[in-house]
Amino acid sequence: MLTYEKYICMRGNRKEVRGLFLALPERLYPKKLLPQNKETEKKLLEGHHPLSPDFRVIPFVVADEKRKPLCRCLLTIYPGDTTAYVGYFESVKSVKVCRLMFAHVERTAMACGIKHLLGPVDCSIWIGYRFKTNYFGNAYTGEPYNRAYYPYLWEQSGFSVCDRYFSNGMRKIRNEDGRERFIRRIEQFKEAGYEFSTLYGHDFYETLQAIYELLISLYADFPGYKYVTYEQFRALFSSLKPVLRPEMVKLVSKEGKLAAFFICIPDYGSLTAGNVTLGKLIKILKIKRNPGGYVLLYMGVRPDSLGLGSALAELVRQELYKNGCTSISALIHEGKITGAYYRELAVRRYEYVLLKKDIDFKGC
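Now predict its structure.
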């Protein structure tokens, strides 16, 4: 426990700390933008989450003299890893308070043999990571959401940006927007024996397993990547099933093996964030029936099938044109080729960061 003037920083899984940890987000966000999912957070704190066997978590909370929470985070430590992950960060706008918490975090991390802190990572990149840095006030489906001043607090606490990401907000598609070479590429792959389909006619869970087997190798070089089993992956992503429209899940196979996929989700805004109430569910179902826009959320292409990405991008463009929808090409790692697909249609660029701090190793 650390104290500074009228502030106290607590750590550990005592009932008081858990209660303060869970209570803070509701003080910081308007109700409709609250990104918190209390049930997920409770499971992580109690060790009952599907990924809990893989790591140890330590919650930290700074409170004032009246025991009102001001700042929080969850430190995640993986066995044998000298990088620890800081996530579920929330805070009032106070550098002093944030520094007090990170002093406690660093002291704890160093005692565990940690040399680097990376975040925000909510225990695992399979759960959530990154800070949003612009265009606040609204959120699209699947977008990380936070208070605008969070990156500043981290930088004032000694962190620096190590990775950047972006999303392209696109205007409505016109027929003439198609690229001839992308259109030709579809036919070239078909002639080479590749089969194009959608989720229609496919079992959701069989498709999910095929996607998992492809993703688990494609994501291996992502910052903060950790291997997960298919059972864990299924537990995390089964929630996609009720919100997908099958025609907007594009699949490409060759000789019975998945070669590429592109998952696009109707843009439900922030309705799918946090706990889904009956009122939210009614709105979600209404949007699903007639989406005004889509989030182009997940793409994967097998290394021996490069070029399929642009073919899938063209198929999605055709669907968007047919339905008169806008779209957001989401959460692209800076420098990746997927960021170039139809970027001339972008009218807005959303930006995100990941931050890192090296800490002095002192041993246990």
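Residues 198 and 247 are 5 Å apart (CA to CA).
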